[in-house]
Each structure stands twice: as structure tokens, then as C-alpha cells.
Amino acid sequence: MVAWVLAKYAIGQPDPYFAPLAALLGVYPTVARSLRESIQYVAGFVLGAALAVPVGLLLGPGTAGIALIVLAGMLIASWRRLGNQSAQVTFTALFVLLLGGHDPLHYVTHRMSEAAIGVVTGLVINIAVFPPLQLRPAEHAVRQWGNDIADALAVLASAVTDPGEGGKHWPQHDDRLVTSAQQARAAARHARESLRWNPRASASRRVPRPDAATLGALEELTTRARAIAHCLIDSTTEHTWPRIPASFGQQYARLLRKVADAVRQLADQREHAPAHQELTALSGGQHQIGQQAACLAGRGEGRVTAQRLSRLSAEMIRELGAPATPGANQPRQRPA
Question: Residue ranges of the domains in the chain?
Fold first, then answer.
């Protein structure tokens, strides 16, 4: 609306349809992409106009002129640097040829001013007035990923003592892990993109920035959780589940539930990171698990599984401590 009013009353264009069109086509969910798309739109518009003017002067708006415009416009539009705005070359060229007739230069002069007003208006509003930040979707997606990992660990804790019951629920949790990981990665990419060239990026600190260390830890935790499932569920059948001693299984299940709580805490970046005391307690529980697994060396077929499970839980606890900082007892405000 602003672009239309400016083009209509500031420069006196009777029907400045290119102004709102350029304003809309140059506005995207992030400031960086809006700048990029606006530049590409202007490039496509200029190339289309430059193509249509000589064709209009030489051939006019006839069959031969239209055929040449479409063919040449499609060839120019294949230039990768035009990105999503490549269609503007042929679109603009056809408009100039069909509506400009045998005087396309006069038509282009007026429409170029409309397009300039539209692009500038869209960018000013998108950058100075409503510069969007995509931080909250990323925060929610990362927290959901952590919750899904924790839920999967709870299922695996049950599977340690009852593989049959855990095996029934694991496939749906495995699918959720894949989906939530993909969504969190995509949301984090969009959030980082929204911070580029955004004036609100330095002023707004209420919402946590995507944290590469936390995302990396969640990635590794997902891998370890699926490896534990492979030990307990995926590699077995109903009659060949690994025979883990009950005492080891119960203690390992308790450890997995504690790890699940720490994972939820890690993924919620508005809360405190897992404190040193919590990590120390997890390490102590893991030490007991390791000792117990080592004592199973002569106790038959469950020893290899127990030792493998112990190694995987130790790796998970190390990943939980990796993103921690010296100020782990303070709310996390991580750099973008």
C-alpha cells in the first residue's frame, strides 16, 4: 500500500502496478534474504527491460518479437545468480514489449521508477520497521529435540529390564528422533539467517540464539541413543534378547533416566545448563556401571552387551558436559 501511494502521488503514475509487485517480491522471512532477493529482482527487471527495448524498436509487439523475447528471456533466466527471481527477465520483457508497443523506452522509464520505489519501500519496512527474527521457532525445535531424546531414553531404560515391552514402543520414538533432528537443524539455519544484517540482532537478547555446541551435543546424544537401542532391541529377536544380569539392568535403567533429565535441561536454553554437581553425580553413577560391567567378564553372553552399554552411556555423559561453560550455574546466553 505504501509503495502504491508513493508511486501514484509522489511521481504521478496513474496505475503503478509494478510498485506493490516489487515490494512484495522483495520481502522474505529474513533480512538477508530480502536484500538478496531484491537485488536479484532488480537485476531480472533490468535485464528484461534491456532485452525488450531493442526487440520492440526493431520488431514491435508481433509474433516474431514475442517469440524472440520468450526464447532469449528463458536463456538469460538460466543464469544461476538470478536465483528465484529468474522469471522476472521474461515477465518484464513481455510486459515492456506488449504494453510499451513501438515506444518501449518511454514505458520502461516509468516502470523502472515504480519498481525502484517498490523495492526500496519493501526493504525499508522489512529492515527498519519489522525486521523478522526466527529465534523462537529454533528455540522450540531444539527443546523438542531434547525432549524426544529424553523420551527415547526413558523407553530404553524400560527396555533394559524388559526388552519386549521396550521393543514395541521404540520404532515410533526412533521416527520422532529423525523428524525432530531435521526440524531442529532447519530451524537453527533459519534463525542464523534471520540474524544476518538484522538491526534487531544486537538489541534483542531475550530469546536464546542457536547454540552450535548444544546442537552438536544433541546430535551425538541421538546417535548414542540409537546405538543403545541397537544393543537392546534392533539386533535381537523375541527369543534371543541379551541376558543382562538383573542387578546391572536395574542400575543402568536408573542411570538412563538421570541422563534423560539432563538432556531435557541441556536442550532448554532458557534454563540453567546441567550443573557441575549434576554432571559429577552422573559420572559417579557411570563409574559404578563401568565397574559392574567389568565384573561380568566371566558371566556368559551378557557381558559384551553390558560393556557396550556402559561405554555408550559414558559417551553420552561426556557429551552432556561438552557444551557446559564455567558459568554453568547461570542462564545461558550463547553467541549466535
Answer: 2-129, 135-321
